Amino acid sequence: MISRNLYILCVLFISACGSTQKLNEKSTKLTDEQLLDTVQYHTFQYFWDGAEPVSGAGRERFHEDNIYPQNDKNTVATGATGFGIMAIISAIDRGYVSKKEGVARLNKILNYLKTAERFHGAWPHWMIGETGKVKPFSAKDDGGDLVETSFIAQGLICVKQYFKNGNQQEKQLSALADNLWKGIDFNWYRNGQNVLYWHWSPKNQWQMNFPVKGFNECLIMYVLGASSPTHGISKQVYDEGWAMNGKIKSPRNYKNINLQFFHQGDAKHGGPMFWSHYSFLGLDPNGLKDNYGDFGMETKNQALINYQWCVDNPNNFKGYGANSWGLTASYSVKGYAGHAPSEKNDLGVIAPTAALSSIVYTPKESIAAMRYWYENKKDKMWGKYGFYDAFSETDNWYPKRYLGIDQGPIVVMMENYRSGLLWKLFMSDEDVQKGLKKLDFESPYLKK
């Protein structure tokens, strides 16, 4: 029997050579397991080979055409860095890199985060890779970003848990991760109210004025705020803020597929698919319930509606169907857009991350899309870091570009589908368990 690492290398070598011949000579196709390995490995390389070189952290974007916005090539994205940290843990566990290599890279990233600019513990949305200084995301967004910071914290808790019983170097890495996440002052970002605000900066204070309410990508921020043993928030902040004093309950359906929660903006049939990805890379939605609803049902049904909308294709875009679906925030034909199932927000642009990162909710539909794109569209859709960010058959638009926040969830959710690794790490953390109990959540992970 060949070793697991040798098996992986053989599969990836075949993939890199452009062949889809299975190791078993009876078939000309990759098995599902080989296909998952191929996609997960190559997508992970965005955070390994493609990382920002000085910090080792996740870059905002990578363009194979080498055309970038001004001074943006080595911009570090906080959210992508958090997702990348989780992807590296997955890669260590799966044998894509050695534990020694992975620990060295994680130490590099975490020490960069330790010295980077922070604002009451929160990192900015963007940082300069070489220095860790804030790079303004917009004119007034030049300080702390609590949502993106929470994506980092989600990854840091996984690092803490994965290495806490390791050798001396690994235990030191675990302790550093724990220290960094506990330095985030969630309570400050209440702005004195019972809600969490997205942004604050020394120059512009609270002028961004974005109190976070209702279902979007931000649930993890409230869970971590409740979990923080150093700068925690009360259940009242969750109830009045996120849950809007119960107004978050907004039952509706599409083709008898039910949604329970109010989704921000024009989201009658659910918002962009990343709303059911980013918060749930570590936070396992399966069996996760609170006084307002069932998050396992909400995340799965958002994916099912997203899929069904593309199958129904009410706007009659070219290329939509059961094997090619997925609407989320991504590159778009004209810039960047939050694609979602509505006549207004469906622009004929499919983002592979929407379907691939939904594999934990819709395995059959996600693997079908993955296989179709890999076997039939690889020449247009596949590059050195896996599937490109987005495409449109209607506009014959196939840009050879990647975004870090879309790459990360693919790797992490594939790992959660295959092993549950990141879910098990995050949900086993003692502080997270206390936070979930504080908010009156139910979960199979919670100790009685």
UniProtKB/TrEMBL annotation:
<protein>
    <submittedName>
        <fullName>Beta-glucosidase</fullName>
    </submittedName>
</protein>
<dbReference type="InterPro" id="IPR019282">
    <property type="entry name" value="Glycoamylase-like_cons_dom"/>
</dbReference>
<dbReference type="Pfam" id="PF10091">
    <property type="entry name" value="Glycoamylase"/>
</dbReference>
<dbReference type="InterPro" id="IPR016883">
    <property type="entry name" value="UCP028431"/>
</dbReference>
<feature type="domain" description="Glycoamylase-like">
    <location>
        <begin position="209"/>
        <end position="428"/>
    </location>
</feature>
